[in-house]
Amino acid sequence: MKQSEALLPEFDNEMTNTRKTLARVPHDKFAWKPHEKSTSMGGLATHLSNLPTWAVHATSVDVFDLAPGGQPLPSPELPGSTEDLLAIFDANVAEARAAIAGAADEELFKPWTLQSNGHTIMTLPKIAVLRGFVLNHLIHHRAQLGVYLRLNDIPVPSIYGPSADENPF
Prior knowledge:
Radius of gyration: 17 Å
Number of domains: 1
Number of helices: 6
Order of helices and strands: HHHEHHEEH
């Protein structure tokens, strides 16, 4: 079995759970923050909707620079609605899934380097980037978004088992 084939069921499960969480984010709460130092709910949801694109970066290039020539990459704009947020997420998931599915084992075991203005931040095998920097990173922020939902009395979806708001059994 190829590494990508082993990873895809986990990817699919995490993307399904992330979509359930993103679908709960109401557009009228996009600006809400739990603290002045925190990212807004819309900013966090936008970050989650774009995280799958890192699977494309990890499989298609060997080096990715966050600030080429010292100029940071532009931040994505907040979507205009929850529906737009989900459409962006769905498109990014489809592109990421195709990139993972098409990645040969030889490619996944090659090193991948994240840089900022030419300075190395980290170098890991591409398969480790997919697990750690894509999936684990996404899971972390999805849990954070779950707290944002709870603090706004928005029902939190069941992820790995029942939530206090849902019991699917």
